[in-house]
Amino acid sequence: MALSDIADGVETTAEQRDRGVATVDDTADDLVDRLRPFADALPCTPAGAATVVEAYAAGESVGACAAAAGVAPATAARALHLLGERVTPLGPTGREVVRDWLAGELPRTEAVALTGGDEADFALAAYVETHDPIPAAREAVEDALAPPGDAAVDKRDALAGTMSDVPDLR
């Protein structure tokens, strides 16, 4: 088959139809509306969870997020965990102790003492170990929790035309 056979019947036109760019963007929805389908799974109202997420994304501590939302700090931490944020108060060894307690291998008082935390830390760690984040809820708040762009990368992109490449150095 020759190129002329392939091109047989192909026509050119003077202009193309502008079809635009197809997009699907649900970020125009309010964060509370995006969290509403997960209301039964969240430890607080969707409005409270949205306030926690917005404060957390702004760099506030979990305690400050809780105060802004009018919920207990443990509730804010549980909400953040369910939304995919890593908020466990214990390190790897402490989490292993919590898993041992959950498996019935240690009494609670001994497990709390071994973690080095207090009762609240232990309770939150147990919650984190027994409740998986909700993937669809994470997607709902992904844009709100996304870190800002890397300033070094942005600067490099802006100056790309002024930088030389390795072949330019020969």
Please tell me about this protein's structure.
The two termini are 45 Å apart. The chain has 10 helices and no strands. It has 2 domains: 29-84 and 133-160, no CATH class; 90-130. Mean pLDDT is 82; it is low at 22-27. It is mostly helical and 170 residues long.
Tally of extended strands?
0
How many structural domains can be distinguished in the coordinates? 2
- Major beta sheet summary: none
Binned strand content: under 5%
Count of alpha/pi helices: 10
Kindly name the structural category: mainly alpha
Mass-distribution shape? elongated
Low-pLDDT sequence parts: 22-27
Q: From N to C, what is the helix and strand string?
A: HHHHHHHHHH
Q: Helix proportion of residues, in percent?
A: 40-55%
Radius of gyration from CA coordinates: 26 Å
Mean pLDDT: 82
Q: Cα distance, first to last residue? A: 45 Å
